[in-house]
Amino acid sequence: MVVDFHSHIYPEKIAAKAVVSTEAFYTIPARGRGTPEDLAAAGRKGGIDRFVVFSAAAVPAQVVTINSYIASVCAVRENTGRAGADKAGGPAFTGFGTLHPDMENPGGEIERIVGLGLRGIKFHPDMQKFNIDDERMMKIYALLEGNLPVIFHTGDYRYTYSHPARLAPVLDAFPRLTVIAAHFGGWSLFDLALEYFRERRCYFDISSSIPYLGRRRAEELIRIYGAERMLFGSDYPIWDPGECLKEFLELKLSSAEQERILSGTALEILDN
Ligand SMILES: [Zn+2]
Fold first, then answer.
1. How much is the pLDDT for 27?
2. What's the topology of domain 3-270?
């Protein structure tokens, strides 16, 4: 069983534009088209059983539309239960919702998100342009604590919105908030992240990281944090999930560690 905990999807009519702006943001060419159909095909080809899918709202007005869209895609691709495949025999999709610090009624939208069957929230502070430790976010974290898991994009040497130093105090202030810090806790700040998160309670995904870390350092960081805190993820459409899986399987890890990272940690979070 393989769960890809980090993938972005967009409606067909805006996918091409969204992919181009993601490429511009990260200055690398994307491997995928960014649509649910393309992701499902990549999963079938690459051996992925389940994707956690999301999309971040750049402005408050997009929140409701995006959450309804993600839920509608997941309804077709069966977002509940532990079984791997949807009715069409492809990978299953589990949706995470989006919120924005400037939105009017986050509490109401969180209730709607739960009602829609979405299973967590994705924040991209660098693209949504807010600091993780922003005052406006504190009431949102309070609403999410003990309710829905949260995955943050973390780390970018060009900005400080998602700096590990901003996430650390949030972890301290909300001890029951389930947090996944993407990209080993800090893209391009991998070793710095270690200083903030080694002793704190949070999970990590390994997406968009191994090409920058190299195999040896990726293995070391997984050992330092512990496989029980790590999740496999591709960051589709930037990367191809099947190629990411191959890259992950080339790491020198035990089969117990592999199993934990490919599905064990994910099921622990999603089943809670
Ligand atoms: Zn992401």
1. 85
2. TIM Barrel (3.20.20)
